[in-house]
Design goal:
Length: about 240
Amino acid sequence: MVPPLFRTPTGQEIPAVTADEMRDVDCVAVETVGLQILQMMENAGRALAWHVRDVHTRGDGTAVVIAGNGGNGGGGLACARHLANRDIPVSVVLDRHADELTGAAAHQHGILTEMDIPIQTDTQELSNSEEGTVIIDALIGYGLRGRVRSRASTLIECMNSHPGKVVSLDVPSGIDSTTGETLGSAVDPTRTVTLALPKTGLDGVPGTVFLADIGIPYTVYERLGIEYHCPFDEADWVRISVD
Ligand SMILES: NC(=O)C1=CN([C@@H]2O[C@H](COP(=O)(O)OP(=O)(O)OC[C@H]3O[C@@H](n4cnc5c(N)ncnc54)[C@H](O)[C@@H]3O)[C@@H](O)[C@H]2O)[C@@H](O)CC1
Ligand SMILES: [K+]
């Protein structure tokens, strides 16, 4: 399979990676170069919050984060903190009971509880929220394995039936980030904010796609033989598309 070629609006080419290749990037960044996941996640959450504010054009200006238990969910929970810091009323719907969260997602969740941000597993509030509410899809990223299971599938349907805009983190949940295949059901976003490098499966996803800088240094890409030239200019993100 020839990987899709993504370009910035100025025509700069950016290589796309499979989920395995992105895992290698993460692995070299963390294990060899010494970045911590939370450092990258902080950049992801902040960039995502900027995009949520950018699509917030009308309505009551609220946001609901739908979060899973992996790195994608952790980025969404960090985003919730950044939105609350900008006085945007935000709530969180988890895909599981809070006691079952682990790793970075549990860490981010702990901060949100100290901030008194409403967190639930019930989707009622999401269903009742206004059209102007922005939904943040941080359920599953490139870690999707197999067909979407029932609870996640319910949350995906809930996001898709909401009249508000949906911003997906990294990959629309339910899309295989390597092949672009819908594994059962998938989020239909207004916008996707993908991290560090485009994923091959993003070719053809609905909505616009932005690439966000999460602070991975050149040396990581060099060590993996990925030809990378910084596509970012004044902003920490750039719109990308396939020819
Ligand atoms: N360097 C990077 O690229 C960084 C990536 N980050 C994020 O981390 C993500 C990758 O993190 P992970 O490897 O933890 O994986 P993900 O967070 O993408 O996926 C794991 C989550 O998806 C659920 N899941 C997997 N398959 C499922 C299925 N079939 N049905 C229902 N639920 C399913 C798991 O239960 C878990 O909650 C990226 O997509 C990105 O959003 C950020 O944490 C920042 C750093
Ligand atoms: K997602």
